[in-house]
Structure formats: C-alpha cells, structure tokens
Amino acid sequence: MREAARLHGYLDWFRFHVTKWNGFREIGNSVPVMLGHTVAAELLKADNITPTRGEFTPLGDEALLPFAATEARTYFELTERVIPQRNRARS
Questions:
Q1: 5 C-beta neighbours (distance < 10 Å), count
Q2: Which DSSP state fits 71?
Q3: Which GO BP terms, alphabetically (predicted)?
Q4: Which SS3 state, helix, strand or coil, does residue 7 take?
Q5: CA torsion 73→74→78→81, rounded to 10°?
Q6: Got the DSSP string for 11-53?
Q7: 58: how many CB neighbours lie within 10 A of its CB?
Q8: For residue 35, how many other CB atoms are within 10 A of its CB?
Q9: Hey, where are the domains in the chain?
Q10: Who wins on pLDDT, 45 or 82?
Q11: HSE of 74, CA atoms in CB hemisphere, 13 A
Q12: pLDDT at 80
C-alpha cells in the first residue's frame, strides 16, 4: 500500500485505514496533489486568470477550536440549532 501512496504523492508519515482494502480505497479515491495542481494551473491559464493572494484573516481565539456543536452554541448564546439535527430514516 505504501508504494501506491508514494505514487499518489503521499508522504511516508501519512496514515491510512488499518485494513488494506480500505487503505487502497482511500488512495484510489484521492486526487494526486501534483495532478490537481497541474489541472488547476492549466484551467487558470486557459481562462486567462492570474491568481492573487487574498487578505490576511486572523484566526481568532484558538481556545474555541475544540468546542463541540453544543458547547459552541452555549458559548455564542444561540437559541436554536444552526445545523439541524440529523434524522435517520428507519428501514
């Protein structure tokens, strides 16, 4: 599996699913980084677009990063769910 990952441009420290089948599926479903970069560059060139850097956006308080949805809702004093609860259909 490591050889396939290297062909796709994954670094050796990258970890995949523990089973070989799922690991190969992860690799097979991914787009190699260099391919994505090359396709994007060609699309920009074909559309005659010159990419520009966006403005710097400060990240804010890093203490908010580990919040679960319910903790964030309490912290920001939201009264209703911004993301609705998922209702699974019973079969």
A1: 19
A2: H
A3: DNA restriction-modification system; methylation
A4: helix
A5: 40
A6: -TT----SSHHHHHHHHHHS--HHHHHHHHHHHHHHTT-----
A7: 5
A8: 12
A9: 1-57
A10: 45
A11: 5
A12: 79
- Our measurement of the distance from residue 2's CA atom to the centroid of its chain's CA atoms, rounded to an integer in Å, reads 21
Give Dmax (Cα) for the chain. 51
Q: How many Å apart are CA 61 and CA 81, to the nearest integer? A: 22
Q: Do residues 2 and 16 touch, judged by C-beta distance below 8 A? A: no
Contact criterion met (CB below 8 Å) for 2 and 12: yes
- CA geometry: angle 86, 61, 74, nearest 5 deg: 40
Average pLDDT on 10-24 reads: 91
Cβ proximity of 16 and 4 under 8 Å: no
Q: Whose CA is closest to 5, among 27, 37, 36?
A: 27
Query: Residue 20's pLDDT is what?
Result: 92
> Which structure tokens are listed for 24?
């190969």
